[in-house]
TrEMBL record:
It comes from the Bacteria. The keyword Transmembrane helix applies. The lineage of its organism: Bacteria, Bacillati, Actinomycetota, Actinomycetes, Kineosporiales. This is LPXTG-motif cell wall-anchored protein. Keywords: Membrane, Transmembrane, Transmembrane helix.
Amino acid sequence: MRRLVAWLLLVVGLVSGLTGAALLTVLAPPATIDVVERSEDPGVAVVTSPGLVDLSGPDARISAEAADGADVFVAVARADDAEAWLAQARHTVVSGVTGDLSDPRARTSTTGSGAAADPRAADVWLASTTGRGSATLTWPTGSDADYRDGGGIVLLTATDGVAAAPGTVRLSWHAEGRAASHPAGIPLVVAGGVLALLGALGVLLAPRRTRPDARRRA
């Protein structure tokens, strides 16, 4: 009976360990959190809510593409400065990320009406860049604390403040912590290793049953 229990422990331990190893490697979550927002009517700008830039990882990246090849403007600003530039202009707000890590989705809302000033002529941006058809900008996370007096940090993309904002906007973060690995991976590996070790010792140390014909020969 003890030998059977030992074999069961060994098998369960090996299965648990292999499952945990798979969760940490081939079944691990993506290395980045990529959220793509596509809209036919985004308004004149797409802007994130304060705090979203610090979702995960050492930095956040915003990339935007305009279908018609127009100049694309992306920038980082204090929330108060971005709000002042937008005024009452129609724009899309990305307020959060929903869904699981394998298929994250942007939570958005659209507000305001009308146009804004040309963002390329404004001096409120902490960092900005412009590209023909597309543009990308990276900003370090953990920066909200340095700009609390301005309402935090937001990422923003637009074209010229009058035409529609880029229809495709991608927000990306490097996954860290729970987002970077399956929470059950390491516990399964540890538990599997312990069970397999106990099972192997039990198999080696359990007394072997002597067959009746062997006893008769003896």
